[in-house]
Amino acid sequence: MEELLRRIAEGDQDRTAELFAEQFDWRLDWPAEGHPAVPWIRPRSSRADVADHFRSLNAHHVPELNGTSVARILVDGADAVVLGEIAQTVRRNGAAYTSPFALHLSVEDGLIIRYHIYEDSLTVARALSA
């Protein structure tokens, strides 16, 4: 868990993707059709897809203005929930936004088999559409 958060914070997309199993359950709390202003919202099914997800996030935001914080990590066996707040600034238009988030992870044999994230998708879409 901590290693995943560290690699995400460091912006090391390929090493982040290495933490995922060959097959995993990926879900982002967005409508199935996604949103045209938010290109990283789409199904993911491979480690290359995971790396692409985090690359796209970094490409559309100003990493040095990221203020994302973790308030709590809850662990129950192979499952963990991370609670916190996303704070980002959109690279294209300078719009800053914050959103609470919950990340549900499951780990098997040291690799992530479930990655479900819940956030305020309307706030994110508005910031990227501004």
Could you give the topology of this structure?
Elements: H1 2-10, H2 13-17, E1 20-28, H3 47-60, E2 69-76, E3 79-89, E4 96-108, E5 111-119, H4 121-129
Parallel strand pairs: 1-5
Antiparallel strand pairs: 2-3, 3-4, 4-5
In short:
This protein has 130 residues and is an alpha+beta fold. Helix content is 28%, strand content 38%. It has four helices and five strands.
Structure description:
There is one protein chain. This protein has 130 residues and is of the alpha+beta class. It has 4 helices and 5 strands, in the order H-H-E-H-E-E-E-E-H. Strands 1-5-4-3-2 form a 5-stranded mixed β-sheet. The N and C termini lie far apart (34 Å).
Short descriptors:
130 residues, alpha+beta, five-stranded mixed sheet, globular
- Share in helix: 25-40%
How many strands, which pairing sense, and closed or not: the largest β-sheet? 5 strands, mixed
Low-pLDDT stretches: none
Order of helices and strands: HHEHEEEEH
Report the total helices: 4
Report how far the terminal alpha carbons are from each other: 34 Å
* Rg for CA atoms: 14 Å
Structural class: alpha+beta
On the 0 to 100 scale, the average pLDDT is: 94
Beta-strand residue percentage: 35-45%
- Arrangement of strands in the largest sheet: 1-5-4-3-2
Number of strands: 5
| Net shape | globular
